[in-house]
Write a structure and sequence with these properties.
Length: 159
């Protein structure tokens, strides 16, 4: 492809040289200078048009590559890439969730601490109740004014 383009350029240069030689032979013509300038401008124009075509081809290939790579990325990730606004909304929602999580975690830790304190208090109260019952039973058993049956009834009531 590049060889053909190179050959075309060489042929264009040869044609332009032949045109210039022909113009030089007819120097008496007053328009020779203008014809030369026109030929130069035409050559520049054609070369610029060729560059534009090449750049447009490169651009279209690059666009095709981008579309292909987006398709591959979507295939691997399973979702479409986010634009700037969608990403900002995602970050905002993530911050809200994070804040909510921290609040709930702090509340859960508070409830755990409270549960620990209450279970210790319950244990202390149970121990106190058992010792009080035992003390009461001992007092009843040690009372010489009561009969054995009345002592047993009172002990059963305590328990």
């Amino acid at each position: 492809m590049l060889c053909l383009v190179f050959q075309v350029e060489l042929l264009k240069k040869e044609v332009n040289e032949m045109v210039m030689k022909r113009m030089m032979k007819t120097e008496d013509d007053k328009l020779v200078m203008f014809r030369q300038q026109t030929a130069i401008v035409a050559n520049k124009k054609s070369s610029l048009l060729e560059k534009i075509r090449e750049l447009r081809g490169d651009l279209s290939r690059a666009k095709e590559d981008v579309v292909e790579k987006k398709g591959m990325a979507q295939k691997f990730r399973g979702d479409v890439s986010l634009n700037e606004d969608e990403f900002k909304e995602y970050v905002k929602a993530l911050r809200v969730k994070s804040t909510r999580y921290k609040q709930m975690k702090a509340h859960l830790n508070y409830l755990k601490e409270e549960s620990t304190v209450l279970s210790k208090t319950l244990y202390i109260l149970d121990q106190g109740l058992k010792s009080s019952e035992l003390d009461l039973v001992m007092r009843i058993a040690a009372d010489p004014n009561q009969t054995k049956v009345s002592k047993e009834v009172k002990i059963m009531q305590v328990i």
